[in-house]
């Protein structure tokens, strides 16, 4: 294996395309980002022209290829937003704009799916890939392929539009336990020829086309590796890799994921399991999180108060911080009210009590996952804006009674670069 091998990960995000290049040791060599215009709202649908992604991704690849020269990019993997779907013809030309991950207009199709899909299937709901594919096929019965965002982007490099990965296909109805497309899909008005061949993330799916390699400044030997969804790529980026390793994302909402040796399915809590190498990845999302803090304080106020927190002195207040009515995980209660009283006169105490409340929800979330069959967290990697608050980390360590680690890497593009490296290193093909 050449010592100068470089691995590129591309993250097709909601607002931009980010590329990250790493070496065999996992060290980040270079990164570059190109902004994307916002998706368009069209008659209740949320759409985007897929060629916008390609133009941005091509810019990222060309830029990094020049920056890294003469070191060649040996392998490349792509992640995309989960549930972003388009249909294309045999040549890969999109037949319409893509329906975006947050489009929930396909309610009639979701109702059709609900009548036949098993309760624990991730294809339920108007935002699922399957509901969108069913809607799009009614408009374009001449279609040849269902493509997720990451699928289509990879196919523009290999020319093969009939390939996807296990993680993206979960919301299309793929059965990861049986490692196959289920027979109940035949009851829908979709031909099974539309469905892609499914590869585990991190497996080689092909090589870059010669003319595309020349256009982008990539070697013709560059391998294209099966990618994943953006959230799972971000999980991989943290370095979590063992059973019991968990990742908490402290963003606007609170998202928990943990590696388990058996799948966990609890659709009432929005919990499904992705195959993750030899293990499984299960998780849930609470409505609590940073959005609650922003409801009461500005960012300058939060920054100023953070230094005044006393994590070693609990406030004694018992909060369940929610931005509005309703919660799905760890409690499934659409009528659950925010519990943020009594409010103390001291804003710093109020701030700390909210942090303690979110930490309690995090602990309850992992307890709920354990009750459903996941292991207790052995260590918790932290990502998101809240991970930069050392006092909050101390509160969480005490509440969780486990080590809380601030992840060095949290970008989805870095996680995809790790998948590219994995595919290259485990490939049986000789490397130049």
Number of domains: 2
Strand-residue proportion: 15-25%
> Got a strand count?
19
> Are there runs of 5+ residues with pLDDT below 50, and where?
none
Give the termini separation: 7 Å
Number of helical regions: 12
Q: Sheet bearing the most strands, described?
A: 6 strands, mixed
Shape category: globular
How confident is the prediction overall: mean pLDDT?
95
What name goes with the CATH superfamily of the largest domain? Answer: ATPase, nucleotide binding domain
**What is the name of the CATH topology of the largest domain?**
Nucleotidyltransferase, domain 5
Estimated radius of gyration: 22 Å
Determine the fraction of residues in helical runs and give it as a percent range: 25-40%
Helix- and strand-based class? alpha/beta
Largest sheet strand order: 3-2-1-6-13-12
Assigned CATH class of the largest domain: Alpha Beta
- Level-2 CATH architecture of the largest domain: 2-Layer Sandwich
Structure description:
There is one protein chain. This protein has helices at residues 50-68, 107-116, 129-139, 149-158, 166-169, 210-216, 230-237, 290-296, 299-306, 347-371, 390-400, 412-426, and strands at residues 6-12, 16-22, 28-35, 40-42, 45-48, 73-80, 85-88, 98-99, 145-148, 163-165, 197-199, 204-207, 223-229, 245-250, 254-260, 273-276, 279-286, 379-383, 403-406. With 432 residues, it is an alpha/beta fold. Helix 1 (50-68) packs across helix 4 (149-158) and helix 10 (347-371) packs across helix 11. The longest helix has 25 residues, at 347-371.
């Amino acid at each position: 294996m050449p010592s100068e091998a470089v691995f590129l990960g591309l993250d097709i995000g909601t607002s931009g395309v980010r590329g990250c290049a790493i070496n065999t040791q996992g060290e980040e060599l270079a990164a570059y980002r190109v902004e994307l215009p916002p998706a368009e709202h069209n008659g209740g649908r949320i759409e985007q022209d897929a060629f916008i992604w390609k133009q941005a991704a091509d810019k990222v690849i060309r830029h990094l290829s020049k920056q890294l020269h003469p070191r060649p990019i040996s392998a490349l993997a792509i992640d995309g937003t989960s549930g972003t779907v388009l249909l294309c013809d045999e040549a890969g030309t999109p037949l319409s704009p893509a329906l975006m991950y947050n489009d929930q207009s396909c309610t009639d199709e979701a109702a059709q799916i609900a009548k036949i899909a098993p309760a624990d299937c991730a294809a339920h709901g108007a935002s699922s890939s399957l509901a969108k594919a069913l809607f799009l096929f009614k408009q374009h019965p001449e279609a040849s392929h269902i493509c997720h965002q990451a699928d289509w982007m990879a196919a523009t490099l290999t020319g093969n539009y009939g390939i996807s990965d296990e993680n993206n296909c979960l919301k299309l109805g793929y059965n990861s336990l049986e490692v196959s497309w289920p027979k109940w899909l035949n009851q829908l008005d979709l031909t099974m020829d539309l469905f892609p061949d499914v590869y585990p993330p991190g497996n080689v799916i092909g090589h870059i086309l010669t003319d595309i390699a020349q256009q982008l400044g990539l070697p013709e030997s560059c391998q294209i590796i099966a990618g994943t969804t953006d959230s799972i790529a971000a999980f991989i980026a943290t370095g979590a890799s063992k059973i019991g390793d968990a990742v908490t994302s402290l963003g606007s909402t609170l998202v928990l994921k943990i590696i388990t040796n058996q799948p966990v399915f609890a659709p009432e809590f929005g919990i499904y399991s992705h195959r993750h190498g030899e293990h499984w990845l299960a998780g849930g999302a609470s409505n609590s999180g940073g959005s609650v803090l922003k409801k009461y304080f500005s960012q300058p106020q939060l920054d100023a108060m953070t230094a005044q927190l006393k994590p070693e002195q609990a406030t004694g207040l018992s909060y369940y911080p929610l931005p509005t009515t309703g919660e799905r995980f760890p409690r499934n209660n659409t009528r659950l009210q925010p519990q943020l009283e009594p409010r103390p006169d001291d804003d710093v105490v109020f701030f700390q009590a909210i942090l303690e409340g979110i930490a309690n929800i995090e602990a309850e979330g992992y307890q709920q996952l354990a009750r459903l069959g996941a292991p207790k967290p052995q260590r918790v990697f932290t990502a998101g804006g809240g991970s930069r608050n050392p006092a909050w980390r101390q509160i969480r360590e005490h509440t969780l009674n486990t080590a809380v680690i601030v992840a060095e890497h949290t970008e989805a593009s870095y996680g995809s670069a790790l998948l590219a490296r994995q595919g290259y290193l485990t490939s049986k093909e000789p490397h130049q």
